[in-house]
Amino acid sequence: MMEVEDIEFKRGRKTILKEVSFSVKHGEMIAIVGPNGAGKSTLLKILSGALKPTSGAIKFHDEDLHKWSPAYLSKNRAVLSQNYQLSMDFTVEEVVLMGRYPFFEKIPSSDDLAIVNEVMSQVQIGRYRTKSINELSGGEQQRVHLARVLAQSYHGRLVFLDEPISSLDLKFQHETLKILNKKKKDNSSIIVVLHDLNLAAKYADRILLLSAGGIESIGEPGEALKQEVLSVIYDIPLRVQDNQGELIIYAS
User: Fold this and answer.
1) Is 19 strand, coil or helix?
2) Which end of the chain is less enclosed by CB atoms within 10 A, N or C?
3) What single DSSP character describes residue 91?
4) Is the pTM of this model over 0.90?
5) What angle do CA 52, 47, 232 make, to 5 degrees?
6) Distance (Å, rounded) from C-alpha 99 to C-alpha 113?
7) Strand 206-211 relative to strand 214-219: parallel, antiparallel, unpaired?
8) How far apart are CA 20 and CA 177, in angstroms?
9) % of the chain at pLDDT higher than 70
10) What pLDDT score was predicted for residue 101?
């Protein structure tokens, strides 16, 4: 679905990303993890097309990512960024319907409206549909924008999410990652930036561990998350314990 070939990104004289190469397969979830300043959000912006790499290439559907039109990209990839504030007073339903804008011209079809209802139910925001999004808490707003992305990517897309659980309580952190995990069944590929290593290990198929702008490791959780490496990167003694096939990472 996507091939990332030796990309580098510089801001002025500062190198933010260097020698980043990997592939994204159909129907998998990749969690990008790493300490603050590792380049996680920058990498996600480059993968989604919001930024161009200084060098290297990104192939999407076997073509250079930036050769595709905005209209094509909006129908084939969905993005949830960290900055999702809206200045206008849209209702929750109107915000979620924005995810369907690439698929109709003036009036949404009955299918579009059915998808909006379904994804609002998935993230448990149906009761807020007529409320202004600005009346909701930060966590509730985050769930509304997750629903918007789910509506846009309903039929199977490449989905990018930058810290989609940062404002959520424990229950909805797990609920959100379960929803994203289920999307793999429609052949979607999920690329998500996470801070919580335990949640990344629990839900992701592969982990991409970034450090100082480069890939330290990439692979299944047990391969990518080694305690010796994590302890150095995060500058704190960490333990990685295998609990009947589920990794548990904690400070020692």
Assistant:
1) strand
2) C
3) B
4) yes
5) 105
6) 11
7) antiparallel
8) 25
9) 100
10) 96
Q: Map out the domains of the chain with their CATH numbers.
A: 2-87+156-251 (3.40.50.300)
Per-residue DSSP letters for 98-116? GGGGGG-SSS--HHHHHHH
What number is the average pLDDT over the span 163-174?
95
Q: Which residues, including other chains, have CB under 8 Å from residue 55's CB and lie 6 or more apart? A: 6, 7, 8
Strands lying side by side in the sheet with 2-11:
14-24, 2-11, 55-60, 63-64
Q: What's the Rg (C-alpha) of the chain? A: 18
Who contacts 82 (Cβ-Cβ below 8 Å, separation ≥6)?
41, 162, 163, 166
Instruction: Give the residue carrying structure tokens 């300043």.
Output: 37
Among the listed residues 213, 245, 250, 244, the one whose alpha carbon sits nearest the alpha carbon of residue 230: 250
52, two tokens? 């161009």
The predicted structure's pLDDT at residue 210: 98
pLDDT (tens digit, 9 = 90+) per residue, 113-134? Answer: 999 999 999 999 999 999 999 9
